[in-house]
Amino acid sequence: MDKRRVLFLLFSTSPMSGDHINNEGRDNTALTENKTHAEKQTVVIKLGTSVLTGGSLKLDRAHMVELVRQCAMLKKEGHKVIVVTSGAIAAGREHLDYPQLPNSVSYKQMLASVGQSRLIQTWESLFELYGIHIGQMLLTRADLDDRERFLNARDMLRALLDHGIVPVVNENDAVATAEIKVGDNDNLSALVGILAEADKLLLLTDQPGLFTADPRTNPEAELIREVRTIDETLRKLAGDSVSGLGTGGMATKLQAADVARRAGIEVTIAAGRRPDVALDLVAGKTIGTRFLPLASPLESRKRWILAGPPPGGTIYIDAGAASAVMERHSSLLPKGIARVDGNFDRGAVARVCDQEGKLLARGICRYASKDLAKIAGKHSQDFLEVLGFEYGSVAIHRDDLVVID
Asked: What is the Cα–Cα distance from 374 to 138, expressed in whole angstroms?
């Protein structure tokens, strides 16, 4: 099963996958609303071209350093920060002194190729002012649709965050074709939020949020503060981008919000040039348009594990591992695996049974069946010698494990 189907199953199998929030959804929303600022969160901040350029034809480095300052303060408070940045093509045009080029894919890819290095150098120099390292991630939809590549991207993202490094993500426009493009960084940021199991996605743009009408033409348009239901009426309110410099508009932000909230991520569309906008949003202040999540990320993933694809095989574990999994809700370690049946890939769902065959749990495996069979009963320090590689010390992480009572 490819990653695209996995995402569809995640959304379609949840009891709250519809646009209308049921009572269970409201309970989850209440939990989200009661989060205190003291809680450490994973935050994805998407910065559109209009925010980075201020509507001009070049990067506004003065404002970029202000955004970096906010990221640095969030990190100091203990939050994990991911930046999804637009602006590669704009940076390329600036560096090449605004050449007059045909409006073709190849020339846009050329500008992106030139501009991406300039863009990442700018981010690197600005984050260095605060002693923060960054790591570049260039993605296409192909990286997210293929299960193995999705897991590799997820593991690298987690490694960066665990080491205090800020991932700076952009679509790989220099090589992406129509078939493998996400298409815009709004939807890319939603997928990155799923990769990171984020708590919040901040879509920062040149507008204060979503309005009841087009504020450019209707002076009576009112800002929509909170969205619980995304329907056709709301979609019709979404217009095109104002600046014309980027690929996303309010419609793509609405698409991204719908994807992210179904994965349990709270989404806010807000003005990227509002003072302290990221700090205030993470602190829980009412700014812009907020889209309430339909479930927590953990609940969404565990619903998918239970109701998603059929298990690819069975992992039989010894009594000690069974006790750890059932009573202490621990991760499953290869040391406790007695044998593995079936043929499944890394990232597949497998049954977990005791040695008599009683079903104990279902979970997402960090290793393929053939590799689990080789490291069954072994300690983590032996994995590299046995396999020639390792994906961590656990066979199934406790967050990816659903105990069957």
From this structure: 33
* Buried-exposed string 63-83: b where 16+ CB fall within 10 A, e elsewhere: bbebbbbbbbbbbeeebbbbb
User: What's the order of all strands across the beta sheet hosting 359-364?
Assistant: 337-342, 313-317, 349-354, 359-364, 401-403
**pTM for this entry:** 0.75
pLDDT of residue 181: 53
> Alpha carbon of 324 to those of 115, 197, 351: distances in Å?
51, 25, 16
Judged by DSSP in three states, 394 sits in coil
pLDDT single digits (tens) 186-218: 989 998 998 898 999 999 998 899 988 877 788
Average pLDDT (371-399) is 94
C-alpha 239/C-alpha 235 separation (Å) is 9
How far is Cα of residue 287 from the mean position of the Cα atoms in its chain?
22
How far is it, in rounded angstroms, from Cα 158 to Cα 379? 23
Interatomic CA distance for residues 46 and 249, integer angstroms: 13
Q: Which two tokens stand for residue 153?
A: 């991207």
Measured between alpha carbons, how far is 73 from 43 in angstroms, rounded to an integer?
13
CA atoms 44, 50, 54, 60: torsion sign: positive
Average pLDDT in the 274-292 region?
96
